[in-house]
Amino acid sequence: MINNSRKIIIVGAGPVGCYLGQLLKQMGFDPLILEEHGEVGKPVQCAGIVGKGTFADMRLPVSERSILNIIDGAKVTFKDQAFQLLRPKVAYIVSREIFDKELSQGLKIEYNTLLQDIHVIKEGYLLKTSNGEYFADLVIGADGPNSRVRKSLEFSSDMKLYRGYQYRLKMALPKTNQVEVHYVKPFSLFTWLIPEGNGTVRLGTISHNPYRELKEFMEKQSINGEIIEKNAGAIPIGTCQLVKKNAVLIGDAACQIKPITSGGIYYGMKAAELLADAIKENQLSLYEKKWKDEFEQEVKICLLIRYILENMPDDVLQCIFRHVADNVSLVEKMGDFENHSSVVWSLILNPRTYPTIGALLLGMLKSPKFLLRSFFRLPR
Ligand SMILES: Cc1cc2nc3c(=O)[nH]c(=O)nc-3n(C[C@H](O)[C@H](O)[C@H](O)COP(=O)(O)OP(=O)(O)OC[C@H]3O[C@@H](n4cnc5c(N)ncnc54)[C@H](O)[C@@H]3O)c2cc1C
């Protein structure tokens, strides 16, 4: 039995699905959101650090009530080396629960409705859920990294899922306005410490074995604050097809994640603006085109950097890290929270970087297969 005949269905009431819902509503559409959980914003699967662009660059206002702390820089470590980055008010620490809940205000959301499968029928889609069947002319998968929409409709993707795990701890850090990032392997294996600013710290990791990684990190750093919450989630890294007939993917479902920091909120919300415009124009291909024009090049460059560093031996990584540490002022000047390739280009174009590039190329030459694979990953 079809118990709803609304035309636009968004699967997933995360920040991206909700922001898209708000944009569409403002344009006069009447989207319905299907959400597997009983409320928005829970469970939390995020470290909640966003650049100021998430508040300043969005078309619709985003909840400033969700801001818990303001960050002025970072301490970055790799092996026994470390450097400090100072960038006043570079980022905010948000409560994802408040952030998501405020984005969902006034939207039509069917809770406790888990999408199970989608069938293509005549001019639309039949969505089978734990709460009955729904018909959609246009179906939008904003259903996160393990997207059921992506799987049911067989969108093509080269994504790889990474595992994230995080504790909220009762403890204080020496600096309440600074995050700490500890790399084991840039940028696929690292641990973070983020002060919420209220005697609570978010300690998380991205790792193949996050539980062991966090345990070892806490032992090594003598961290023994009381654990008050545990969160876990997946991070999709790669690229993905965005449009297939009248079905679309967005946010984590579409791998719209920054490959270097694994942050996805900014990209997902900017993609929502592109998609809302394309829906208004009744031309879904515009969404794909605008995403490519504005973000794809940056994502591909960062994917290549990530791939190269993932495959570099530690001695070369140490050499690169030392070079970055020696040029912190350049990183502070050129660094952009949302656009990471700008700082890489400014480092590469600096003549002081040439010996480091030489070491990197020598590292790559040791494996011709790896060199070839890197070449084919060059953005075109
Ligand atoms: C440990 C960790 C730390 C992170 N830290 C940061 C960070 O500091 N900054 C940052 O920018 N990003 C961070 N991210 C990434 C960020 O959380 C995501 O990019 C962001 O949540 C993506 O939003 P979304 O709306 O696309 O997907 P999601 O937030 O995953 O929302 C998807 C929604 O769809 C629902 N859903 C899923 N499947 C179904 C289904 N079959 N039927 C119905 N509903 C469904 C889910 O319940 C959820 O509500 C982190 C991720 C992890 C795992």
TrEMBL record:
<dbReference type="GO" id="GO:0071949">
    <property type="term" value="F:FAD binding"/>
</dbReference>
<dbReference type="InterPro" id="IPR036188">
    <property type="entry name" value="FAD/NAD-bd_sf"/>
</dbReference>
<dbReference type="GO" id="GO:0016628">
    <property type="term" value="F:oxidoreductase activity, acting on the CH-CH group of donors, NAD or NADP as acceptor"/>
</dbReference>
<protein>
    <recommendedName>
        <fullName>FAD-binding domain-containing protein</fullName>
    </recommendedName>
</protein>
<dbReference type="InterPro" id="IPR002938">
    <property type="entry name" value="FAD-bd"/>
</dbReference>
<dbReference type="InterPro" id="IPR011777">
    <property type="entry name" value="Geranylgeranyl_Rdtase_fam"/>
</dbReference>
<feature type="domain" description="FAD-binding">
    <location>
        <begin position="7"/>
        <end position="40"/>
    </location>
</feature>
<dbReference type="Pfam" id="PF01494">
    <property type="entry name" value="FAD_binding_3"/>
</dbReference>
<dbReference type="InterPro" id="IPR050407">
    <property type="entry name" value="Geranylgeranyl_reductase"/>
</dbReference>
